[in-house]
Amino acid sequence: MKKTIVIVVLMATCLTFGQKKKNGTIYVEHPAITVIEAMTQARVSGDAAKVASYLADDFKCFNGTNPNEPESGKDKAAFAAENKWMFDNVDYYSISRSKGAYPDALEYKEDKVVWVQTWENMKGLHKTTGVKINMPVHCLYIVNKDNKIQTMMVYSTSKVADEIGQSLTDRKNGTIYNHHDNINTVRKVIYSYEFKDFDKAYSYFDEKATFQDINSLDINKENTLAENKANDKGLTDNFEIESIVQVGYPDYLKYELGDDGAVLSWWKFNFIRKSDKKAITVPIHFSHGFNKAGKIISETAYYNAKLLEAK
Prior knowledge:
Blueprint: H1 2-18, E1 24-27, H2 31-45, H3 48-53, E2 55-63, H4 76-89, E3 90-97, E4 104-108, E5 114-126, E6 132-143, E7 149-155, H5 159-167, E8 174-177, H6 181-194, H7 198-202, E9 205-213, H8 225-238, E10 239-246, E11 251-255, E12 261-273, E13 279-290, E14 296-302
Parallel strand pairs: 2-7, 9-14
Antiparallel strand pairs: 1-4, 3-5, 4-5, 5-6, 6-7, 8-11, 10-12, 11-12, 12-13, 13-14
């Protein structure tokens, strides 16, 4: 009985995976692909008339990621005008195949049209706002029997366009303080180093705080609090902190977006190198991020480490 059940299961599996039905052909080269790539080059050249020449009279363009777009979509004239606007308002405008990708033309048995799908990258720099455009775009096209583009469906992020729109007008994003409790915290941290009270300095940090140093070979490396303590010990094993001088005054930037903030501060660290007693001054800029509890959750240090090697 057991053997019979196994045989039945195997037969069912074979039938499930063995049934295939061809519904057309996929082409890597096709006149429909040629017309779409020619239209794309016309788009980036700013030639609205040439763009329109590749489109059917009943052409429609739809945004596949925007459920609120009217069902009518953009017609031939609106689409050509939109691309002229891109050419006029975007420097270095280009649309090219994504790395490793190529278009496909699909001819279905029951259809008299050809479907083409593309994967491309759109790049440029918005002239007014300086917003960089570098985004993947996936498009589906329907090309009719006259080799004219009848339908276009675009799938891409709206974040870049949103940033351009928001950057066209001034907008406040919080308040800058020159006196604030978070500024007081940073001063206590820095001067605790001068008095060699490192435990006191570390007490102002959240236990999950991250630390970055622009001199790191890996610019994306984020050290933990424990790793930063080890780095500080390596520094103080070789250098004595003689004094620390505040330069100018710190700023606390309290942002509206994200409901967080950062203290920016500037200092001169005066070191004595223990090996040869040489006095070395290192300007350092710190950026400290804070959470709502007033604990430091991030630190980024900007300085020239080569100064510590001075002869």
